[in-house]
Amino acid sequence: MRISALLALFLTFPALHAGLFSVDDSSDTKVKCVYSGTDGHCVEPILKSQNELVITVTGQGVAPSVTASPAQAYALAKRAAMADGYRQIAERVKGVQVEGQDTIKNMMLQQSSTKTSVEALVRGANITNTSFKEGLCEVEMEIALSYSRILH
Amino acid sequence: MRSRNGNSPFIFTHLALIATLSFGADNYYIGYRFTAKNTQAINEKLSISKAMQPCSKKTELPALVLQRHSNESFESVLGREENQFLEFAAAQELRVKSNESFTAQHMDIQNSLILPTRCYAVEFNNESVTITATK
Fold this sequence. Notes:
The structure holds two protein chains of two kinds.
Chain A: H1 2-21, H2 26-29, E1 35-36, E2 42-43, E3 53-62, H3 70-93, E4 97-105, E5 108-122, E6 125-133, E7 136-145, H4 147-151
Antiparallel strand pairs in A: 1-2, 3-7, 4-5, 6-7
Chain B: H1 8-23, E1 26-37, E2 40-50, E3 63-67, H2 74-80, H3 82-90, E4 94-103, E5 107-124, E6 128-133
Antiparallel strand pairs in B: 1-2, 1-5, 3-6, 4-5, 5-6
């Protein structure tokens, strides 16, 4: 009985020692909770204070069927592509508002519609590449997000 | 208020000319709106108006230099070099509005780009125009 008690004490002592006197490494690696998600769990911020986040999108635009000249077709297709590119940037940075409506009659789907909308003020987006082929204009755009840009 | 000898308009014109020469730039308000429906341009409007009062220039912002033919008006220069100006202005600040609607039979996408109306300092040279955004 005494031997088993001593053995138990001998085995538990190192475990207690490790728990009481060891340096807690997990506290250093633990991320501070800045934002909490809808489920209450901590969400790690995507944009870190020391990093720059670059978002790249490709906007597409089509030239109208009736134009005065090929140059005008190109210019209008490029504008439309820019609008699409800016929309994508706004969607990715700010988010999209989605509204859905389903109509069900006699247990059968009669009508289904989805509406999405986004509105944002975009600063510092740049066009990096433009291509125009067979009436379709593609514009590559990028925006760099950083704390320094936000604060200015 | 008119002076007795009717020289007021003459004096004011000279004062305006002196002010323009001393500051070296005119001020213009420029705004832009573009709407595309289903990735096709449907409406575009560039509004230019000369400022009645000088705009305050607090911070230095990037400038754009456009080519100008002899005695060409600013509206004409902007009309010719619209693409360049829009890329310059859009890089600073641009508002985007987008509405999309989807049903089983129909899809509708409308994107609008709005350049908020703001004041630009415009400096006219012999063969160029320098446009600087003021804040």
